[in-house]
Specification:
This protein has about 300 residues and is mainly alpha-helical. It has 11 helices and 6 strands. It has one domain.
């Protein structure tokens, strides 16, 4: 495979390839009536940013026009960051790097959410497979990436070198994408290095929307298996303890209500009740009893 200085892995080229593997968009008619499918370019970029910064606050509706422009420029490798794109925020970058190395579970969960929302996985179109192949070919052609460059792209978050990555045939999609995104954020702070590659893949069309026309990934002829990772979940023991505490509280509350209701309303059933009948002036109350004896002393 021939290396090419025009081929560069960066944020813009990564986003461009991700969007080629996006789930099918809704029809023109639904767009016409202002419905949204949640799969727009800005939505995808916001979701990627949240992999890096989980509590990232998306731009408001009034600022979305500016953000759409930022998204287009970032994808085309014209800008590296902006007020809405925190890709040069050293604190955010260091924190993300630390999460990858010490809290991989939360990081892979975030990327899994991204994949589940945006990427067309496991369908007959094999978009996920073509995405992996395109990224592999781009990494191979990018001669600025050394053979020993480390990627945190293994399913367990461990390091794999470029050389090993290019000889691998089985890929956990979420881990693979997370490892590349981490590499891009930490090692490709100048997004403009990918502009030549973007222009080659998506040639200008006289001001019209650019269309991706590259065959990147076609040179990868070996069989590639793409599978999904098992996302870590909270321990069952912790969940049972929490549920037990909640149930105890609910049970106590229910018992209190039962006692209160009993105090308010008491229903009694008396068998063979005594009934008193009264008549005349000098009344003697006589009850309905089986035997009554009166002694007049």
């Amino acid at each position: 495979m021939t290396k090419n200085e025009n081929q560069r892995l960066c944020g813009g080229t990564f986003l461009t390839l991700l969007l080629q593997a996006r789930k099918p968009r809704m029809g023109v008619r639904k767009h016409y009536i202002s419905e949204s499918d949640g799969l727009s370019d800005p939505a995808a970029l916001i979701a990627l940013i949240k992999v890096m910064v989980p509590d990232y606050i998306a731009p408001t509706a009034s600022m979305m026009g500016t953000f759409k422009g930022n998204t287009s420029d970032f994808k085309a490798c014209k800008i590296s960051s902006s007020a809405y794109l925190p890709f040069k925020d050293s604190a955010a970058l260091n924190t993300f790097d630390d999460r990858i190395k010490t809290d991989y579970g939360s990081a892979i969960e975030a990327m899994s959410d991204f994949v589940a929302t945006f990427i067309d996985v496991g369908t007959s179109t094999k978009k996920d497979e073509y995405l992996v192949k395109a990224l592999l070919e781009l990494i191979e052609k990018d001669d600025s990436i050394g053979d020993g460059q480390a990627f945190y792209a293994s399913e367990d978050g461990s390091i794999v070198t470029k050389t090993t990555l290019l000889s691998t045939s089985k890929f956990c999609l979420q881990s693979f994408l997370l490892g590349i995104w981490h590499f891009v954020l930490l090692n490709r702070k100048d997004n403009k290095v990918g502009q030549k590659a973007y222009n080659e893949w998506c040639p200008p069309r006289g001001g019209a929307e650019r269309i991706y026309s590259s065959t990147l990934g076609g040179s990868i002829t070996r069989p590639i298996q793409v599978y999904g990772c098992e996302v870590p979940v909270p321990s069952v023991e912790a969940e049972i303890i929490d549920d037990g505490q909640y149930e105890e509280f609910e049970d106590a509350k229910t018992e209190d209500n039962t006692e209160t209701d009993t105090e308010k309303t008491t229903q009694q059933t008396i068998n063979n009740p005594i009934v008193f009948n009264q008549s005349g002036n000098n009344n003697i109350q006589i009850a309905n009893v089986d035997t009554l004896t009166i002694n007049n002393n």
